[in-house]
Design brief:
alpha+beta; 3-stranded antiparallel β-sheet; 9 helices; 10 strands; 17% strand
């Protein structure tokens, strides 16, 4: 078992050794992924400006650096990049801003801890972090007694702030804070920039301003749908990553030609697609 390759290296098709098996929200497939980037200026046609093709097992959040590196030399880097939830994590939020000056706008993952899921527990956001003093204050006002490098860096944390048993054991709210029978609460922290970027994004995505700012991203979902219905985007006509990427580029070029033609003809952009029955019902009303 130890000698088996990772899932990302397992050949999934006898016909295409570069194809990989993947699953997402109940959908299973063998092949590749395509990442499309388009403009969303309401005053111009929405054109696809970048196409990336990857094996199906490549995580989405690994692709933003590649996309930005492709856009930069062509002068197409946006000030704000609207992205799906799969493309955002704390490291990407920071690196996109530092390396390319791009602000990512997109939902980030919620705090996965049981305290956050319960809604009544003391999740990490309720602890005050003093980065200069390297200390953490719990919701009950108790101070951490240590700040040490994380002993298990695989979980993405950089620091561990530990509280004292004499403070945690008699605390009346202990059940809301930790499930450990004896040990005090330990708070894992990322590097400061990543921690602050993630918590700022989690707060921002709960506001009405975020909903309005993020709304134009729905257009790229329509682009995928248009590519699927008009050009068969989900079916590769060729074998291999390189040829599949060529097909994706040709599909993007075809959609751009259609969109430029519609824009020149004054055809307004379509709204959310309605079924034939829904359109008939609207016509009769």
């Amino acid at each position: 078992v130890k000698d088996m390759p990772s899932p990302a290296e397992l050949i999934a098709s006898p016909y295409d050794p570069e194809a990989r098996y993947s699953t997402k929200r109940g959908v299973e497939w063998i092949g590749y992924k395509v990442h499309l980037t388009e403009t969303c200026d309401p005053a111009t046609p929405h054109l696809i400006v970048n196409v990336e093709t990857t094996p199906a097992t490549t995580p989405d959040d690994h692709m933003l650096a590649t996309i930005h590196a492709s856009l930069e030399p062509r002068g197409l880097l946006p000030a704000e990049h609207l992205v799906d939830k799969g493309y955002t994590d704390s490291q990407v939020l920071v690196e996109s801003q530092h390396l390319y000056g791009v602000t990512l706008i997109g939902p980030v993952a919620d705090d996965p801890s049981w305290q956050a899921r319960a809604g009544t527990g003391f999740d990490k956001a309720q602890f005050l972090v003093d980065w200069g003093r390297q200390g953490v204050t719990c919701p009950m006002g108790k101070q951490s007694i240590s700040w040490l490098p994380n002993t298990y860096p695989q979980n993405g944390m950089t620091w561990e702030a530990r509280f004292a048993r004499k403070d945690c054991t008699p605390c009346l709210h202990r059940a809301q804070c930790t499930r450990s029978k004896k040990e005090p609460r330990i708070v894992g922290l990322q590097a400061r920039e990543q921690y602050e970027a993630l918590h700022a994004a989690r707060h921002h995505q709960t506001t009405a301003a975020f909903a309005q700012q993020y709304a134009p991203r729905a257009g790229i979902e329509g682009t995928h749908e248009q590519g699927i219905r008009r050009c068969g985007l989900r079916q590769s006509r060729y074998i291999g990553l390189a040829k599949t990427h060529l097909q994706h580029i040709a599909t993007a070029a075809a959609l751009n030609v259609v969109r430029i033609g519609e824009w020149l003809a004054g055809t307004p952009q379509a709204k959310t697609r309605s079924s034939p029955f829904a359109r008939l019902k609207e016509a009769l009303i």
